Fold:
Amino acid sequence: MQTADPAQLLTTAAQIIDGPAAEILERLSAATTELIPHRAVAQLASQCASTPVTAYGEPGLAEAVTGADLAGLLGTVTAGHPWQGVVPIAGSKHYVLAVASDRAPRGSVVVFIRDDETPTTAGTTLQALWDVVTAHMYQLTLEREPGVLAQNRAVAEARADVAAELGEAHAASLATFLGVLRNQRIDDTSARTMVVELALNGLADLRTDTQRDLVYSGEEPAGKAFDRLAESLRALLRHGPIDLELDAPGNDQLIPAGVAHTARVAVRAVILAMLTQDGVRRIRVGWQWTGTELRSTVRDDGPGRIEDVLDLGQLAERLRLHEGDLDLDAVPGWGITARITLRTHPEARTTTSDPLIALGSRELEVLERLAQGHRNRSIADDLHISESTVKFHVANILTKLAVTTRTQAAALYHATATA
Structure:
């Protein structure tokens, strides 16, 4: 396939979806090899638990692709806007073209792993093909028995949570070790002894976490839930130059243990992202529990730039699976503020007729200006945030409103405002 001729495009799409579902990527790769030369093609579909990640191409490369490599793309590549860039796969950097589709409820991403970074103009054609493939694969899942489908999705969500939490736990341990080893006030012998002690304590914590989670498997007081977060953060930051400030919840009402656990994981993920910046000296963490919503706020005093959007996008996607939100502000020279909201009654947000109810306060501010025709730079200046923060919010807005373009989002805003 070399052109985007409509008749040829339809013929190619039919060839790709005509055959066993397990061979779709192979047929997609064969059909697009002239349009976009590639070494391998990989797919991530978050609603599929049995095979959420599939790949076809060079054996050594295709077999090395994991969900961890692609998960960040699922949260940040916007449907209708193919993305070209570099993604680490199996420890090496690879040039890729990623195409996202919203033709399935949780979306899907296809990634063409290329030999070089030469820009391609095939994005529009590949977008059309991938939308057809995604719709076809989702329809196949609907034809399965409802019980199987529900179990499939539940396993997919659980797998994503466990993988993310394990990765963050490893990152937290490594960050703690590095904090000790980089501390100029600790001599080599003491540092080595301290790292060994931290490693032993970490292994002990792994053995006791399961029993502790069983104790709090239903509900726990908000104060105790926050204390568990504070304990883990103090251990994470104890040997580094970071001052940790904590604002405990103002009440001790019971909070669902699952909500508290998800909030702790999300807060730690945000802090680990903040620690990758230079110049961070203070981090402030607060919780507010209203009885139906747990609102976590994390602020730093760093440079106020979002350099690694993929990590933040991955966290936002995981929170969306739990009917939660990540609202982010990055102000150059002032730092980053992350607001994490988790709800105990998500159905209250889905039964309303207002499609904008899913948006956070900052996202509504961005959407209002977007609907007025402002560009990202203008919105950033008006709200005193960075342009990369605006891009982050726009991607979230398009996903939450189930639209693919800024124009569609603006039209939905105007229709809702005048209704």
